[in-house]
Request: fold
Amino acid sequence: MSAAISPPSSTTAPAAAPSGLRRALRHSSFVIGAVLSLLLLATAALSLVWTPWSPYEMDLANKLAGPSARHWLGTDAFGRDVASLVMVGARNSILVGVIAVGIGLSIGTALGLLAAAKRGWVEEIIMRLADFTFAFPALLLAIMMTAVFGAGIVNSIIAIGIFYIPTFARVTRASANAVWAREYILAARACGKGSWRITLEHVLPNILSVLIVQTTIQFALAILAEAALSYLGLGTQPPQPSWGRMLSEAQTLMFQAPLLAVWPGVAIALAVLGLNLLGDGLRDLLDPRLARKR
Reply:
């Protein structure tokens, strides 16, 4: 009588790896940065449809008033509601950041991919032009453009965007060169794929995480640059609200109404902190080597 063969014991499946969302929620830098960044976006979006008061409405009888139920953050030297100015200032900062970083990202990424794909004299020319552009920081470019075309938000955006082109070109080239050295690129070449097809199908998708992180960080720097230019009178012009110009106007009233400098300063600090923490978190989450260590 043959012994009954018992079914093989089922092996316990290894615990499933945590999902991307769960891993992101455990990353404190990412969570804090995402909350602060969403708060910035929500404030800017809300200012499109509602503000406590019109940011252009002046009430000289109530100028330099402190925080109250009527004016949550007080009023400035012209009697304008500070809370409304901060909200609309967030919208202008995001506008400058999105367009300026978009200019740098689109042109810089294209140049970096071209340099990595072609190498030789093409790469050398692009990198030397990038070095030359780095000699003119955003502030200096804005001053030069202001002298020629006049001060304004458009010139600020162009100056910041031009400064970001070599930044993205260098990051893209370095990341793309690392991908071009991979074995699967050699396999793609062996299959008869050309340089541009390899760039679009293999190189660009593999460096997107680096570009996303770099975009987040440069967004924070663009907000700082816009605030600095507005502080010097080269950026957003009156009557459009700007955090940098609010700081400039508040510096002469430090002893009369010190809170006028606090609110835009806190707004700039929280916006930059949130975007930097978000970029740091994205770097950890999108890099598989760092993700395995967590």
